[in-house]
Design a protein that fits this description.
The chain is an alpha+beta fold. Helix content is 30%, strand content 31%. The chain contains 11 helices and 13 strands. Helix 7 crosses helix 9. It is elongated and about 70 Å long.
Length: 326
Amino acid sequence: MFEVLGDEAIYRYLDYFPPLSVEHLRGVYARLEARTSPDGSEGWLNWVIRPHGQSLVGYVQATVAADRSAHVAYVLASRYWGRGYAQRAMRAMLEHLASAYSVEECVATVEAENQRSIRLLERLGFRLAAAEERKGHSLTTTERMFVRCQVRGELAMQVRELGAQDARVFQALRLVALRDCPPAFASSYEEENETPIDVVAERLVANADRCVLGAWLDPDLVGMLGLRREATRKLAHKAFLWGMYVAPAARRRGAGRLLVEHALTRARSMAGVRQVNLGVNAANAEAIALYRTAGFAPFGLERGFMRLDGELHDEVLMVRVVGSNR
């Protein structure tokens, strides 16, 4: 960790300095190994981040209080920024805090100029703290405080790629979606109700350029989202999301966010994919907010993209860059 913490770039937004020596850092870690503060009022939890087959890239930490709140933080060497390591490590820590320590609220402070970290916190479900929530916390004039209430139901939520064996449950949920939210889909219940199950099964077979993700609250499929790369050579640097839906009983439990995050991770694994596009009904403010939180930005508006029951609907076009320009 001495090499990681010697990276001067990580201290631009931190109020402390690199360790003076390996011996100094060893002494710091020796104190942290107690895992509790000297007065026993706080739990000190620290984990290093080591991707499979690689060297250490950083750490995450949490200070857990008796009121079931935790102050969380992370530090990564600058050469590993933008690779998803911080998000995966933070998410694993947040889930562990909820399940093993019954933490109900997490707090993070960040410099207002540190937009990279602010975007990460927002993707993890943090929000800017209200004035009442900031009472009792010592913040500088340039610091911002973010809070996240732990969602217990989210811990049981599992997301995986669907396959042909899931055709019947997928089709059942898809038909519910088409009836529940007609303005969210270009297709209709009447058009898909008679689709043979073997055709549905074939559509669910994943390959390097496409997949359909499902969110499960065992044993039920409660959410779905499709990802596909554009088919033509000149457009193959783009993928797109389609068919997002979360059942009403599972909403506000993190399913939509988890589906989008898994889809973006899958898109990054597609060789040559630079960006992920999507279209969303302009009246669907909640979905637009979700996509913004996941890093999507609007780039256009199609007027009258769909006619439903004689009424024209507009569509917001959004994009998230996931790869290089090459």
